[in-house]
Amino acid sequence: MDTSPHPIRKSHKLDNVCYDIRGPVLDHAKRLEDEGQRILKLNIGNPAPFGFEAPEEILQDVMRNLPTAQGYCDSKGLYSARKAIMQECQRKGIPGVGVEDIFVGNGVSELIVMAMQALLNDGDEVLIPAPDYPLWTAAANLSGGRPVHYMCDEQADWAPDLADIRDKITTHTKALVLINPNNPTGAVYPPEVVKELLAIARQHDLVVFSDEIYDKILYDEVEHVSTGSLAADDQLVVTMNGLSKSYRCAGFRSGWMILSGKLGKQRANDFIQGLNMLASMRLCANVPAQHAIQTALGGYQSINDLVLPGGRLRAQRDITFEKLNAIPGVSCTKPRGALYAFPRLDPKVFNIQDDQKLVLDLLLQEKILLVQGTAFNWPQPDHLRIVTLPWAEQLEDALDRFARFLSRYRQ
Question: How does the average pLDDT of the chain come out, rounded?
Fold first, then answer.
């Protein structure tokens, strides 16, 4: 009889779960840092390391409220925070949202996982864009569901392919995910596109999840229209947003989930009970960080200064777009929102067979950390995501080094 200890293995629920934004290549980057080498990390949209700090009035409100933030709050969040989010819904034209329709979470990430766990049974399908923010895919898999990726069309400014969505709906499809403004492509969907997506969802009785975390990071006078403001009253729309990007409070882990659609919510009473249960099980979200929400949403919107002409984020978007398109064999659709570019590397020029190897080779040779396109569930190894947060001079130097690397790189 074998009495030797057996390996302790991870759950099979994690077999199809991956999050390569912080994946194997990052482990190599950490090893290089441990050796004393300096790595430019363009793998994650983390504003603070690049000098984008939270507004002072937000920090002051959190500090002033620390003495009263030591206990648990309501499982859905502080009343003052949810009231401010409700008023933001009114400003954005999302009708019929009350304080009890809002859940505050430890970042949008927690709420995405919570929503998938509350909705999905084993084998249920969720339509998710390709490319996507990979947490949506990971959360669907972890919850026993099956992510089904619909294509976004690079030739149409990365708009969702409506025919592909229709073709992929089955009797198992339970929900449709929109990421608008989009991570990783920077696309911002016009209202008519959102209306088409909503019409498909309504026809097939799908819950709509709308990830709008970048809704205030917009360029070129593009306007963002919230999905919930365009939906029919009998549709359930679940909108995700938070403080991490527009308010540069990524480390606060303060996000929220909004349920809208009066008749849709009535039909979803059982699902909402599931959300309440999961919210109660984690007791509550980080209480000190919730004190930032009212001030952030009601105060001066300093993000506007960063995205208008002359603003730092706008300038860095422009540099990234222009320099990428100047590299032979590289093309990039102009990002209209968010903090990223998603350039294409012409397969006829570079013959990339393994895009994770590509980003690892770039890291080892140039000490620049990017994320491969397949990490965002893009089916071909011909794209990368580049974060546009570094200072202009730093970004220009990194893109010049990237161009030099590509000029001699083949697989």
Answer: 94
